[in-house]
Amino acid sequence: MAYLSLFFTALIAATFFPLSSEALLAVLLHQHYAPWWLWLVATSGNTLGSCINWYLGKQCLHWQDKQWFPFKPAQLQRAQCYFQRYGLFSLLFAWVPVVGDPLTFFAGVMRIRFWQFFVLVALGKSLRYALVIVVTLKVIN
Question: What global pTM score does this model have?
Fold first, then answer.
């Protein structure tokens, strides 16, 4: 049950809902759950949450022809070119509080290829959780 709780906490934390999975991860480490499994579960949940953001961003483009849509086609094209050229590797920082969730949503809006998105986001999030685990284990031991 603890692993399932961590998975869903990490998933929700990666969406626009304010939630922190690191606190639960630290508590579970303190309770001697297996660090490897905690890392895998937290990374999987958090990465899936970011994939949901990407999908929602991509789907919002269905309304781009509506008058109320906040971006004009020319703006989207320029932003997409800029993001493809300079911003793709910023997805390694999708774990950063406050900016990470909108970044993953914007990647969907910008039509970043899913496989590129997934690899970069998963790598960044996996490294972040590994660091959290290492630091937490050093503190509790």
Answer: 0.87
